Amino acid sequence: MDYAPNISLIASLLADPGRAAIIWALMDGTSRPAGELAILADLSPSSASGHLARLTEGGVLTLEARGRSRYYRIAAAEIGAAVEALVSASQASQTQRARAIPTSRSTPLPLRHARTCYDHLAGELAVAVYERMLGAGWIVQDGKRVELTASGASGLAELGIDVQAESKRRRQFACACPDWSERKPHLGGALGAALLQACVQLRWLRAMKDSRALHVSPSGSREIPRIAAQVSR
Fold it and tell me: Pfam families, from UniProt (predicted)?
């Protein structure tokens, strides 16, 4: 092979249970201090400090200084997407081996219905929106690659999303992100993040304290199912 990406480096960083717990605690897109991450990951302060140093040096996490405090967050949306994909693969593997109940039935209901997947929407609500966008011809999927159509751009603009600005961001514009509870894709990438932000700004969704679950307002329960509901074909 002329070129082989060095996936072993990031794989080794994610393989340790302590580091995996730290990363999972940051999958809601927030920034947290070392002490809080140590508690969430059930690690001693010294152990958490060592893991955070390795994750930062490896480019998985980035460090933010806020006055005298230091906060850690996931370095890039692609890392969050990779973690979600690994969770999905892990759940599928466990079910295949043990023939257990489907993951969606064992996932807590608030997380199953609507949650964040790093910086975009996941869960039943997100999967349903994605399926409607496909059915309405708003998006076209080829493997994990997703392309936005003219009708999709027009529909998203009505939600206040600046598609042109999102397409210029230094990250993947749109992708089919595997949903680990529903075993179906939801919308990821810059476009997925913009959709979540639009729903938050419209007060259809609201973050829940200390959880990746999202509260769906009465207007959200009414309006989100209407996104791409009119099939244009």
Answer: HTH_20
